[in-house]
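Fill in residues.
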């Protein structure tokens, strides 16, 4: 089992047992545990040439994480402001772009690049930031 596979499995198990954790906390805890087991070597940064092979990773997993990140943002606003907020449709906009360009795997998205994604008509900075956060949470990818 590779370190990245271990991180993904640990994250799933942490999610199953710690319902109150945010996705960021789950990802950090899974990476920390992997570092203890595999050593302190850096996790894949997601820069060109060092990204894990995600050519077979279904885009639906990333979309689920995008939805969770968006929901976390809404819950954070509610906690900070005490008002009612609702999701802003980020998930829907991201789904439409992926569908329009027939992006079915995370690998296909990474080949297109962050700049390409940001230039799409319905995608704004908040959508890009949400996808950035989702990629970081799931795969440790900080740049793409």
């Amino acid at each position: 089992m590779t370190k990245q596979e271990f991180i993904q499995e640990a994250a799933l198990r942490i999610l199953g047992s710690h319902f109150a954790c945010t996705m960021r906390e789950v990802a950090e805890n899974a990476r920390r545990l992997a570092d203890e087991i595999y050593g302190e070597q850096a996790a894949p940064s997601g820069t060109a040439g060092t990204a894990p092979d995600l050519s077979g990773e279904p885009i639906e997993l990333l979309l689920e994480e995008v939805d969770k990140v968006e929901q976390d943002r809404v819950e954070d606003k509610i906690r900070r402001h005490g008002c009612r907020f609702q999701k802003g449709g980020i998930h829907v906009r991201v789904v439409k772009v992926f569908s329009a360009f027939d992006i079915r795997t995370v690998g296909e998205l990474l080949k297109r690049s962050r700049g390409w994604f940001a230039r799409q008509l319905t995608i704004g900075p908040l959508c890009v930031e949400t996808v950035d956060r989702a990629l970081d949470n799931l795969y440790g990818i900080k740049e793409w």
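Residues 54-144 form one domain.
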